[in-house]
Amino acid sequence: MSGLFLTANEWALVAPGQQLRVPRSEPLDVGLAGFFAQAAQLLSPDARKLDLVIDQSLFHFLSLRLPLSAARRLQALLPFELENHLLMPVAKLNLPYERRLDKQQSVTWVAIYGVEREWLAHLRKLAGEAGLELKRVFALENLLGLEMPPQASGLHLRLCLESGLARLLLYRDGFPTAFSSLEIAEGEGFEAYQAWVKDLNAVIAAAGLEEGALNLSLDRSAQLYFEVEDNRLQLRQPFEPKPLPSAARAELLAPALLKRKGLVPLMAEQGAWRKEIIKHKSQLIRTSGFAAGLGLLWVLWLGLGLVQGNKQVARLQAQYAQALSQVAPGLNPTNGLEVLQERVASLKGSAAGTAAEPYLNSRRLAELSSLREKAPSFELKRLSAKGKDWTLTGKTTSAQDLEKAKVELQRLFPAESYGMSLSQQAKGDSEVNFSISLVHKGGR
Hints:
Elements: E1 3-6, E2 10-15, E3 18-23, H1 28-42, E4 49-54, E5 60-67, H2 74-82, E6 93-94, E7 97-102, E8 107-116, H3 117-129, E9 133-139, H4 140-147, E10 155-162, E11 165-172, E12 175-183, H5 190-211, E13 214-218, H6 220-223, E14 226-229, E15 232-235, H7 272-279, H8 281-327, H9 336-347, H10 360-369, H11 371-374, E16 379-386, E17 389-396, H12 399-412, E18 418-427, E19 431-440
Parallel strand pairs: 1-4, 4-9, 10-13
Antiparallel strand pairs: 1-2, 2-3, 5-8, 6-8, 7-8, 10-11, 11-12, 14-15, 16-17, 17-19, 18-19
């Protein structure tokens, strides 16, 4: 039960017979390397493989309510849903999540813990330079929720205290909905602690107004100071102030706790997949043999189809080339557009090979018709052009394909001449409807 903790107030090492606590520095890079080096010095070489726990000051938490049907395509749907909730690009985040299906209300609840990939890689690098190895990364609020006793249905607010901070965990029917924290200034005397009660009761009342009637409970740290009456906090009587505990506790990394349902690692242990492969080796061998047989049959069938298809294509090409030579001598399927441009340019007295402006839109239409080769799920439903302004509407099932299409449109309609605006709306499991407007900066 050894691990490192990075929280809003402190960095800590918890290990058998060893303990290190350092006040958190800002910016993080200033002190983290030194903290990792100190931790490594306290540990024997065979004990330097550790889990890491971070709190919400270092990751993004979101709770989404989606249609029940969305559960089948969450991986594809989440990037579209999160674009409106996060300021940074979704592609830069690890997005582990927990989901729950509520068939009575026909909804899917999703709790998402987003953490930056580059930041995780940087942490690994700093720890490695100090001689430490990070196995897994967990969210502190997720672990505190696993410690909670089973809950009844409805809204439930859990209060946890630590030195300088109060954490509030909101759950709906046992599923995480929101995490919040409130700084609390430790002082002396009854009046200082009464100020805690006032501030915390204000936050609890606000949560009740926003979410509805809720049940309030206290963890062991909060029970040192408070008791609950009518879902409001009161100082415990007789009042005896006691030191607040640290957020870094060995029991949060107990193996039994880390096996509970609802655990969402922000980063899994590297090489864990190898253990699973060894564990299921015999089943994988049987399955892979069956898959190889099916794959061979599919390749044979595909090969036969390609042979027949190539013959048909060759016949059609020959017929098309013959007809083209009769109608327009000198033209062929590969040079038709260039020849036409040369002839139009010569008629206007332009240099041979110069593209005439009236055919610019034709070239754009030709390029637009080939967009699906680069973005297979990109489907145009309607295309309109008013003067030099264009409007494209359609649908896609892939955020990546939509980005590829935008890149191609920026090439066809350069930014120095056109302004681009995009609106999109999720529809169904993973489908997104879009509308792209391209407005010429010089007017129509």
